[in-house]
Design a protein that fits this description.
- By secondary structure, the protein is an alpha+beta fold.
- The chain contains 41 helices and 39 strands.
- The strands form eight sheets. It has a nine-stranded mixed beta sheet with strand order 18-37-36-35-19-31-34-33-32, sandwiched between helices.
- Helix 33 runs parallel beside helix 37.
Length: about 1250
Amino acid sequence: MAGWNSHGSRLSSNSSFSSTPRTVTLGRVQPQPPSTRTIHCNDSDANALTRFAEVSNFVQPNGILIRLTWSSQGNSVSTTKYNFFTFLPKGLFEQFRRVANLYFLMISILSCTPISPVSPLTNVAPLTIVLIVSLVKEAFEDWKRFQNDLAINNSLVDVLQGQRWESIPWKKLQVGDIVRVKQNGLFPADLLFLASTNPDGVCYIETSNLDGETNLKIRKALEKTWDYVTPEKAAEFKGEVQCEQPNNSLYTFTGNLIIQKQTLPLTPNQILLRGCSLRNTEYIVGAVVYTGHESKVMMNAMNVPSKRSTLERKLDKLILILFAVLFTMCLIGSIGSGVFINRKYFYLGLEGKVNDSQFDPSNRFVVFILTMFTLITLFSTVIPISLYVSIEGIKFLQSIKFINNDLNMYHAETNTPALARTSNLNEELGQVEYVFTDKTGTLTRNLMEFFKCSIGGVSYGTGITEIERGVAERTGVKLPEDRRSANAIREKGFNFDDVRLMNGAWKNEPNPDMCKEFFRCLAVCHTVLPEGDDSPEKIIYQAASPDEEALVTAAKNFGFFFYRRTPTTIYVRESHVEKMGKIDDVCYEILNVLEFNSTRKRQSVVCRFPDGRLVLYCKGADTVIYERLGEGNGDLKKTTREHLELFGAAGLRTLCLAYKNLSPDMYESWNEKFIQAKSSLRDREKKLDEVAELIEKDLILIGCTAIEDKLQEGVPACIQILSKAGIKIWVLTGDKMETAINIAYACNLINNDMKQFIISSEIDDIREVEEKGDPLEIARVTKEAVKTQLRNCIEEAQQILSTVTGPKLALVIDGKCLMYALDPSLRGMLLNLSLNCSSVVCCRVSPLQKAQVTSMVKKGAKKITLSIGDGANDVSMIQAAHVGVGISGLEGMQAVMASDFAIAQFRFLTDLLLVHGRLSYIRICKVVTYFFYKNLTFTLTQFWFILQAGFSGQRYYDDWFQACYNVLFTSLPVVMLGLFDKDVNASLSKRYPQLYVEGLRNVFFKWRVVAGWTLFSVYQSLIVFFFVTRCGTSPQTSAGKMFGLWDISTMAFTCLVITVNLRLLLCCNNITKWHHISVWGSIMAWFLFIFGYSGFMTKSDRQENVYFIIFILMSTPFFYLMLVLVPVAALVGDFLYQGLQRWFFPYDYQIIQEMHHHEPDVNVRAQYVEVETRMTPEEARTFALAQLPSQRSKHTGFAFDSPAYESFFAAQAGVHAPQKPWDVVRRASMVKRAKPTK
């Protein structure tokens, strides 16, 4: 809604009414709006107030009548961030929220004052360039959004005008309008579905624009409105919709339709949401309920929670340190200036009255203050103004060029590439220590197949699952061969083999009536839509989940073929029911549907048989169904539970089936309550759940189903590699404990060498108290039991961890225990135990618990976390972690839309983390430290000059030198460093996953690393300044003159540009043509600039300082000597340090470089013979990748062999082996390695 405001007219304070309530003016009070709104359909006059200034009255408890208005802006939408008037002020506000930009704005203002030693352009020019680049980027992105909005708002839709349809733009739609949407068209607003060309008032919609789900969903109009199909009939429709206020809940709707003095309840089944499309229906007629930004899809159009990487937060601390360095330098200079300004220095001309307060010896405090401001402007370059822009550009290019285009993360079967939905967290991928993953659809394929079942206490199904084979292999048990019967049926969703149930053989079983109810429950209790011909071979089922499709497919193959559906009936073709070979088409009237949700964990339907029999069928989780079973059948319950445990141990997903016969009186009494709850406008969902509890009890257990969901390709290998990389993986699933444990074994997440801690609610103490049914006692006993189990596990874990060769630890905990373990009083114990475990499996957890566990580790462990999932139930977990990864699977795109990165398969996590994440982390670390180094080096040369110049604030460099240093002469090489630096290739990164540990330890951005760059910055600035200054004290020009200030500073600046650019090459692991172009191009850019800048003179006195200066310098041999001597002397320390570090204290990646640098850098295609070679699909794929053009890179060379091979491989094996001093000598005396064959 557009908002709630007090009534526009001012009411007199003397206004009175004979009855309470009375009307008052609200002033600044902001009351809550009424919870409902009224819409007059097809009545523009009645809606006139609604559209512009509807007055809504409601009475407070104190009897005061409050009058509110609300307004609607029509159906036009805008997703832009700015408009023509707000772009500049809002854009600048966004830019100056950054501390660095705000700082340079202040510096620019200071540089415009008389106390500034530099021209305002020195600081204004770089700031302006940075702001222009950022604003142009913002404007370009917003312009694309504007163009998209324009196209959408001007799309045409048919609207009822009188008794005919007229096409108008979407933006002109108003609440209450009657519209017609044709097949394959998009719904322009949230509509109340009135009628369609399909029989029985049904239509089919696709919601992929909302949740990514491509399976069709059925919507059904109220029977009272089926006739309003033609424009003549639609013109007669006059109704009043009372509904909830606009909200962002896509799957709920509460409202009533008042038509012909009859109130009919409205549900989500009668609502067509904006953004969805119409399928398999010629056209539909609907009434507009919510428009524009009030529509549900627009109210969901919010950004994913903003996330900042850990390195960025540490960068803020580094900026603060630079502020401290700046303040220290300015303080030293100001104090020095206050001391140095003295009349005894006659050459300063300070005798008598001094007009300039900054040099007045009689007021040293003023001298101190003014000099402080002067030096702040002079030393402002210590803060890198282009740092943030450069990093943003680098990370953006890393995302779109490297991550999005990586063919190793491209899934050919679904044509799905990797997608970086944000570039802010690239380097965070290189420091992930905890991965939280869903199971279904993430570790598994989410391709469900009906595999086994239990009916009436008898287990059916002879197949052997992947998990069972893994368990047998692990325990050394030999399984019989899986021999399928000759007539076994195999199709999508059905992989069942047991002759006792197929082809009507179930009639010969001991419990044929129970089998019949089992099959009917599968065929009737669902929300599946059939498509295509009504033959078993050609029909296509559109299901909300793969589980439902598998169950209906199973019913079809068992002889109960569901082939048609209307809003109130289901048609099933039943075989062999009366006698063998007989086929009957049976119509079941669906009276009520109690839908599945994550809270209920069950679904029920009330149906009427052709003979009038009323039956409730229910299917759901075993824990939920067992709680609602009637008395008796104890043996059946026990046997079925045993089968459930066996199916769970085999890694199968289970559901329990039950039914209940209803008497007409009981049903009529219950149905009245159901209709009343369904018509409620307040807490409708809660009331429906309460009514469902009244009928979903005293159920009769039929049996259970077991569905197999196979592991995705490459999951075990991926988890094994990630574990070697030091990443701890937690599985958070809703499956039973036995299923979760066996899946963990199959994934290599848990093995027999691990010590397993199992915290379960399935213990005798908890069972006993649950049988008594006292909820308070159950809660108390369960919490104590969880506390005891946690304490015992921690004590045992401490004993194991105290040993040198103890096994790794694994924790398994179920959802009920987890609920109590997450209590603040026990959370510390859970965190302490789980952080010491290599693997953690949480089963039977809810979506909320997934997010709670993720947040607990994120805040408690202070480590980088990553959550990966594929369904809507994983969204909260994905958003709670530092990095969220969505898998574009079969459960829609909600996880992807909430994520930071999207991939198609879990195994691609290896490339995302170990290759792209690790390289991004190393590159960004180098970019930040190099920025810090080059700016500090430049500023320190200015600082050394201040010390030599009597702390006067005299600038050392020309203004334009200072302005262009960061923007032109040193900017491009650092971008190339952030894009192309690579220590080892992708295959070696995955071959040696231990390299990833350097990111976990934050090896490349520790404070000692920053301190090292600082020391070399100080050293190089001293070399540049004092070499040039001291060597230039004697006559050097052809005229016998000494160099002046601007000669010396220009020479020093030239040496500085060469030095810092060559220093970048020293920190590169590989040098490509782009490095050469950027480094030598930047140096060349300086010479071209100085040739042009000093080649002509204007009236500007500042330019006279450097007029013709480069030509004078180049006429002296001293200039060329300095160009060679200064960079060599400045960089020799770095060269020696890097050599000694590589020799005696190598990084892990340097060891790998030494091991493989003699291997020829040839294409992978050389490893395969041409056409005659028979390649596996994976080899063929690798070969295809190798055909792509690649950028060859030259290594800088490894001048020093590393002596630390043994310690590196010992660390891989988990054994501590410190380096030995004699290893150095032995390595140095190694024989030559064999040269690669050419």
